[in-house]
Amino acid sequence: MKSSAPMFLQKLFDMLHAMPSFLGGWCHGGSAFEISAPLEFARLVLPQYFKHSKYTSFVRQLNFYGFVKGAKVSDVATSVVFQHVHFVQHKPHLMRRIKRKTNHSNEAFNHDAVEAVDELRRDVEEIKATLSGLDAQLKQLQEVVKVTMTLLEPFQFKPPPPLHQELLEEAIAYYMPAHSEDDDWSRSSSHHRIMHQEYGRLFV
């Protein structure tokens, strides 16, 4: 099964099936593949599958897995063909037989390690840039909320101060004592007028 093959080979297989024909693809009946325009291939295709755009690194990986150059299928000067006996278009299950070489030089190993570190650094820088953008957006949102609250402040309901409420109750109790139903009506009316006058004076 393809899923048991090394990840590089799985990505390579998927890439060849989706790659635009003007950049290359399977050839020789599916027993090899062609890269017609290495520069455009590295710029447009490699980043989608391998997170880098270095054609030399891609070729080095092919060499590590035992790929060799095959016969060209076009007259394009930049065209390059690669093949491996177990890398076949219609037989993806054969890929699990391909093993990465372990006797490559320390120089090549160190080169891969440096590239891996560089890739991690690029990822970290992208994350930092994203966080910086989010922080700026958060500050802008805080400013919008602050301005909005300032504009709404005059419209917010404010209950009367407790002292005014207490004075009002005392005035009502003083000017409107309890009385029976047969009290003189004019006296009650006088109390009402005085109460309203005092109420107005308290809140001027």
Polypeptide structure, described:
By secondary structure, the chain is an alpha+beta fold. It folds into 2 domains: 7-101, Arc Repressor Mutant, subunit A (Orthogonal Bundle); 105-154. It contains 7 helices and 4 strands. A 4-stranded antiparallel β-sheet has the order 1-2-4-3, with no helix packed on it. Strand 1 (24-27) and strand 2 form a beta hairpin. Helix 6 (162-175) runs antiparallel to helix 7. The longest helix is centred in the middle third of the chain and has 47 residues, at 106-152. It is rod-shaped. The protein starts with 6 loop residues before the first helix and ends with a helix.
- Poorly predicted runs: none
Q: Which structural category fits the helices and strands?
A: alpha+beta
Give the number of domains. 2
Q: At the first level of CATH, what is the class of the largest domain?
A: Mainly Alpha
Biggest sheet character: 4 strands, antiparallel
Query: What is the fold named in CATH at topology level of the largest domain?
Result: Arc Repressor Mutant, subunit A
Q: Give the H and E element order.
A: HEEHHHEEHHH
Distance between the termini: 90 Å
Enumerate how many helices there are, as a single number. Answer: 7
CATH architecture field of the largest domain: Orthogonal Bundle
**CATH level 4 superfamily of the largest domain:** Winged helix-like DNA-binding domain superfamily/Winged helix DNA-binding domain
Strand proportion:
5-15%
The strand order across the widest sheet is 1-2-4-3
Q: What Rg, in angstroms, do the CA atoms define?
A: 42 Å
In round numbers, the mean pLDDT is 79
Principal-axis shape equals rod-shaped
Domain HSF-type DNA-binding: 4-101
Keywords: Coiled coil, DNA-binding, Nucleus
Subcellular location: Nucleus
Protein name: HSF-type DNA-binding domain-containing protein
